[in-house]
Q: What sequence folds into this?
């Protein structure tokens, strides 16, 4: 998903991060970084960023 850089993928990736900490967060965060241009290093940073910017 990250290579395609589709903004519509962001809610899907964030949803996976929210529901399952055991899933490979590193891969999800790399995809989010590629799509958004943001460079957050933790799951919580991504979740907080999304909550603040998705409204």
A:
């Amino acid at each position: 998903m990250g290579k395609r850089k589709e903004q519509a993928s962001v809610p899907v990736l964030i949803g996976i991060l929210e529901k399952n900490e055991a899933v490979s967060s590193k891969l999800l965060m790399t995809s989010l970084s590629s799509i958004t241009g943001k460079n957050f290093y933790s799951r919580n940073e991504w979740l907080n960023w999304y909550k603040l910017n998705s409204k």
